[in-house]
Design brief:
The structure holds two protein chains of two kinds. Helix content of chain A is 0%, strand content 56%. By secondary structure, chain A is an all-beta fold. Chain A is globular and about 45 Å long. Chain B is mostly beta strands. Chain B has no helices and eleven strands. Classes of the chains: A mainly beta, B mainly beta.
């Protein structure tokens, strides 16, 4: 089955700096890659997603890039703010299991003042 | 308001005592799924359902059961809970079909089995 690896597991940045979280996936048939943000004690919430026919997508301060050849995708957050502090999960959708998402193990992002 | 509702939010139970965690969505989503979240392991799929009366195992189905008698409801059943099922559980739903979408998650159920 699909395997998604996520790095780093923890990331600390200064407010205003950029943060990058990277994920790799194993199944070349995977075709949809969402990113979720989970604040402490809350549910994961979708923040951005990308489909396999697109190389990059941007939404204000966040962007996602996809390299299908290398089977990796990344989340980029610019001008980080304290409210960006959370756990971020990447995921990959694999055909054949309905709409199954396989998740990475998460990155704890801390934005320091 | 479009949402996925899980109950209860917190549950402490004893080994072997059957329990059910309910999940209901009001978005007419075909696809529903249960995940468990454990530190360092991320979110792992327990069971999923592509539509009414259609369910299938995910990656960690042992010790769990589900049913999908109605489109909106997808309860998770632990027939004989054990301490290794202590975890944070999330129900999720989405549209399905040729276009695929991210999940909408419920608020989570923190289960402790003693």
């Amino acid at each position: 089955g699909e395997n998604v690896e996520q790095h780093p597991s923890t990331l600390s940045v200064q407010e205003g700096d950029s943060a990058v979280i990277k994920c790799t996936y194993s199944d070349s048939a995977s075709n949809y890659f969402p990113w979720y943000k989970q604040e402490l004690g809350k549910r994961p919430q979708l923040i951005i997603d990308i489909r396999s026919n697109v190389g990059e997508k941007k939404d204000q301060r966040i962007a996602v890039t996809l390299n299908k050849t290398a089977k990796h995708f990344s989340l980029h957050i610019t001008e980080t703010q304290p409210e960006d502090s959370a756990v971020y999960f990447c995921a990959a959708r694999t055909p054949g299991g309905g709409n199954k998402l396989t998740f990475g193990t998460g990155t704890q992002l801390k934005v320091e003042l | 308001e479009a949402q996925v509702t899980q109950n209860p939010r917190y549950l402490i139970t004893v080994t072997g005592k059957k329990l059910t965690v309910t999940c209901s969505q009001n978005m007419n989503h075909e696809y529903m799924s249960w995940y468990r979240q454990d530190p360092g392991l991320g979110l792992r799929q327990i069971y999923y359902s592509m539509n009414v009366e259609v369910t299938d195992k995910g990656d960690v189905p042992e010790g769990y059961k589900v049913s999908r008698k109605e489109k909106r409801n997808f309860p998770l059943i632990l027939e004989s809970p054990s301490p290794n099922q202590t975890s944070l559980y999330f129900c999720a739903s989405s549209l399905s079909g040729l276009q695929y979408y991210g999940y909408t998650f419920g608020s989570g159920t923190r289960l402790t089995v003693v």
